[in-house]
Amino acid sequence: VSKKPTEVRMGKGKGSVEFWAAKVKPGRIMFEIDGVTDAVARQALELGAAKLPIKCKIVTRQGEG
């Protein structure tokens, strides 16, 4: 999302990038972790979920191996 500084006239191109945004629909898998134990993966995902402004749910794939 771009934004122009305050007290700047209209025109003269697009403003600089203020922040990045992405739409995430419910049920979307955001992260997949492989190559570590389940405990380490769960701990990493819980720490990451705490930093996100949305509700997160950790799911596992059964029968893989």
TrEMBL record:
Alphabetically ordered keywords of this record: Ribonucleoprotein, Ribosomal protein, RNA-binding, rRNA-binding, tRNA-binding
GO cellular component: cytosolic large ribosomal subunit
Entry annotated with the keyword NADP: no
GO BP: any one term: translation
CDD domains (UniProt xref): Ribosomal_L16_L10e (cd01433)
Domain of life: Bacteria
Keyword Ribosomal protein: yes
Family: Belongs to the universal ribosomal protein uL16 family.
Name of the protein described by the UniProt record: Large ribosomal subunit protein uL16
Gene this protein is translated from: rplP
